[in-house]
């Protein structure tokens, strides 16, 4: 039959073929068709001619037999495709494709114009057969899905639409083979689906993602993205994001997952290019679900999409805002530990996320490289441009090393450029600083991984530096990190860095210094680069610009420091000598630096101090440095020992003898300190004979200098009591300059004498004698100094000290050592003024040593901090109120003991900022010295335990200071501040925090209850600490009790009788009439911050979906406590600033309540009893009292204004000055703002009552109209007088006599005067009555 059919199909007329097929049984045709298909893979047995013949012999208009043959043919093809597995990928694949390509165009089964001729039920049966094949969950020929999509479209448009929908439901409910899922997704794109059907299909397709192999996921998602054109874009995007979020939680096969995600991101980017609405929907989705942005894939998708220009700005703004919000929320969560129980956010997670994306960009995620680089730059620029306290930056004027007399005397000859610089290494990072660090770390990672962005990053660095951008300092930090950590990657881009050097002399001084520090490693390694840098610095040294010269000096010093260090490492030289090449470079640089000694003082000071520091860091250069410094010293040293003054001050101060304007030209103290430091270094090493002779000669001169300084009086320098120190006169300026130079010189020789002779009797006496000369001169200047207008003023004397940290540490340790009771050092210790001088200089010296960027002795600085801390903590533990450190306590200023406490506190702060990870180690060392423990590691078991023990020691110090008949209030206040500092360092999330905090609260609570102290600063510190820590451990009863005591002492608004204060029931004796005002302000400050935190918590309730009920319960409980405190204060008689602050707190209270009510309206699940309690307290406890308080406050303000008006009217002055006007404007706003917020709160509360079917307004008092006030007595008087005036006027107009009219006119003027007088009397009576009413409501 097969051959006959094929032969007949070749004829031009097909009627014989039709007749022949009509004669054959349908079963025979089916058997032949299947035989042809099954044997199709055999050679020379192509089934296509036979199938084509069947189609030609079964025309659509040939009757029922023809239609049945077509349907049978379709059924046979489906059967064959479902049974022949090889047709999927085997030899029959080509035949299956040919069969499908033949049957659809030729059969015209699915043409719309022939639907009425088709057996739709047969098509439905065919679709059922295909569905059954799908249910079997086995591989299928992909051509079957072309059938099902076309059959679906016909059925959905026919009377069997319900059957088609049921078929779709069956497909969605069935299990899909991996290959089936892929083909179905493609088939769905060809099917005409309603939105509901589309949602059903998409949901089922997304469920299949988890069942696919990693390599099958990208093409499946691509089909879903094509399907998104029909609708439900967000559903598809959210499903994809959720799928990969779940995958990231499973650690298995992460490498394959990363490749899959990279491919999917490419598909998403391509889909968004074709359909930008999809990109907009992606941005909207992640913007509404910002927590999901912290998923790696989601963030990478945004960055990949940011390459599209239309979406670029929106995406970068979204990511930037999210990162800033997260870091700020992290900071707030850290400060409020209770929040972290319900809402956890971690800024470090964002940093790790972005760095992870940067890492993956090198392994398949290429599409995020450019966007991630740009995002990092945006973060850095944003932080730098915000400023205003968001970033912990400071404006640095060049310090004393750069401009000695400017820094000391504030008499600038030339203005020095200022620049916003990055916090020093000892500055504590704030949230915005951390964001900047994230940007730097990202760019550093991208520079390391991708050569394609290296040039762009270096160009951006150059651009920021040259343009003096606010972010220049951050990009300089990035450049320094790049050169240090990835020098080999930067080698190919040295030309980019060289271009920056051309602008070196035009940069601000701090920026130029940081640039030179950054490129120092390159200059040390690359000779060509070094030569180019030296050429630039040489030009700058001889430029007219002073800043350029100072930059040049700093650059040469850094170059010399780095070159000598690198040469020593390469040569392995252990003999303190240099190679020939290094010597040539070193001598060339030293020769250039020597030329600076004839330039401005700023340049000289920079060179002197830099050389002195370099001699200590690179001892191989100490001898050469000594030679050039010693030659300069001889110019200002008086070698004639017969002259009592060893220094030629007239040479150091220009125009000192000619009568012109004086100006310091030689910074003697810095020169002297540097050469003495070099001299001490040379004492410990060998040097040649020429240098030995110079050193010997210099020692003799220094000995003579020291001796003569100790003997010479201020009179020998023409600085006696009659000397002129008027800063407005040239002679006065000269004498002030002389004094500053001598004061610094005294410090330099004192340090040298002590460090060389150590603990000898003669040395200690000499040091003390020099100190007395210094003190005498300092006192003389203070007593005789005058300002610009000739008035006597206290001169500005710099806190900058010439002393070194090494000297401060040594002398402090010796003076207060327990083993030096009979030592000569007691000569110095017995002088309380010298002790005060050393202690007061310690903090500044320590801070400057740590902040010095060129300092390489970080570990030595930490050791010095430990030594100083142990000494000071020992003094605090052993010295009492009868100590010698207190006996000489001044009436004004700080005592020696107080200065010692401040210095110890400063040491604690320096440790936390510079070595935050070693603070516990430092504290443990102090504890070991207190308790005489041999091993400080005994205290490393628990951080909170160590801090708690230290706090207990300070508590005992406070008690001892206040136990004497003459209590040390000021010193106790300082110790209390240290306790606050340590309590802030407790780890709020550690298990033992509650116990540690409870111990502090117990001690403070008992102390405040039992001690009646009237010292306001001490009371503020104690009460505020008690309030803060009590709030952290949810002990609000203590705070409420404090507010009740304040209420009792200040008086109640409703109470009208006077009460004896001795009869008041007060819980806390420390709260009294004198301290009550300050404590009230502390309570209001606490409430202000508390309600701000609560508003933040309410705003984040939606984000904590898992713990929202618990979080809401905690918020309501805290709100209830805060409202109780507010209620007590609202009932209290407050005036002035406390009253204004209370009104502001009330406004913030109702804003917080409004936010809580809005949250309940939008998320109404249940009105809990705690929420009802909050509303009840707000209504009955606060609102009712608030209106009474505002009434009394308004009356008090009226009285105050009236009294002020009478006083000024009597004196003939203007009604008010600028301050009073500002106060009136301020007060005119705060009350209306408060009333508006209250009304908004009540309006939304009504909405919530209606929505929840619960009457919440029953607790609220009806609002009082405060738009105006009517004074009834004044209105009555005015009405009576108006009636009398009208009657008088009617009588006068009836008189026609001209003279009478003139007389009446005179009479009217007199009546007007009488009327004004009567009105004034009425106002005075009203004011007196108002004032009397107010006074009755106050307690005496």
UniProtKB/TrEMBL annotation:
Annotated segments matching region Disordered? 1280-1340
Name the source's superkingdom: Eukaryota
Q: Which Pfam families match?
A: FANCI_HD1 (PF14679), FANCI_HD2 (PF14680), FANCI_S1 (PF14675), FANCI_S2 (PF14676), FANCI_S3 (PF14677), FANCI_S4 (PF14678)
Q: Where is the FANCI helical domain?
A: 277-350, 581-780
In terms of InterPro entries, this protein maps to: FANCI, FANCI_HD1, FANCI_HD2, FANCI_S1, FANCI_S2, FANCI_S3, FANCI_S4
Comp. bias (Acidic residues): 1306-1327
**Which Gene Ontology molecular function entries are recorded, alphabetically?**
DNA polymerase binding
Domain (FANCI solenoid): give its ranges: 166-263, 368-557, 802-1024, 1041-1276
Q: Which GO terms describe its biological process?
A: DNA repair
**Name this polypeptide is given:** Fanconi anemia group I protein
